[in-house]
Amino acid sequence: MPVLVASDLDRTLIYSPAALALTMPDARAPRLLCVEVHESRPLSFMTETAAALLTELGDAAVFVPTTTRTRKQYLRINLPGPAPKYAICANGGHLMVDGVSDLDWHARVTARLADECAPLDEVREHLLANADPLWVRKHRVAEDLFAYLVVERELLPEEWVKELAVWAENRGWTVSLQGRKIYAVPKPLTKSAAMREVARRTGAELTLAAGDSLLDADLLLAADRGWRPGHGELADAAWSAPQIAALPERGVLAGERILREFLRATRGATS
In terms of C-beta density within 10 A (0-12 exposed, 13-18 middle, 19 or more buried), how is residue 179 classed? Predict the structure, then answer.
C-alpha cells in the first residue's frame, strides 16, 4: 500500500528570505534553490540537499503539498521532483487533482461551512472595524473561504490577537498568527479532512505529516506520524502529541530534516 506524505509548505519545507534562519558562519551556509518567483522577485527557497530529498520522496510516496495558500499562490511554486498528483490548498478548501480543483470536494466543504460557523462577511467586517491602520498593511479574503491581515509585527499588540481569537472561537473560527499574517479561518475548514480524502482515494494505509503553525495541528493529529520544526506557533506553544516528533532544527535546515524523516519512515514502511 502507498505511503501518503502531507506536508505544509511555508516555513516547513520552503522558506522566505526572512525565515531562512541562516545563523551559521557565512562560509558554512547551505546552498539554496529558489522554488518561487513572484513579480520577478525570488520569494521562497529550500536547500539543494532538501530538493534532492524531495525528489526521492516523490518517487517513494504519494507526496501531497498541503497549504493555506490560495490555488494561485500555490501554483507559482516550482517544487523539485515529480509533479504531485494531489495538492491541498486554501487550508483544505480546494483539493487539487492534476492542478485542477475538484469541484465536488469544494462544494462539500462550502456546504459544511454554511452549516457550522459564522459567515465570512461577519468576520471580515469585524477585522475591518477593529484592526488599527497603524499596524495593518493589507486586508485580504482568500478564495471566498477565509480572511487574513498582513501586519507590522513590531507594532502589533499581542493582546489584540488574543482578543480576536476569543471573539472568533465563539463564532466557530480559528485565529493563527504566522509571520506577518493573521489568519481567521473557519474551524470546519481543515487540512486533515482533505488529507483523509486523498488517503481514501489512493488507498494509503500510512499517513505522515509535518507543519509549524496552529493551522497544521489538526493535520498532524490526523496523521499516523508527524513532525514539527523548532520554530513557529506550535514550537512557541511547546505543542506536542504522542505521535508527533518535535525537531530542534529551525529555519531552512528544519525543512531538510523533515524530508529526511519522511524518507526514513517511508522506506521503513515499504521495505
Answer: middle
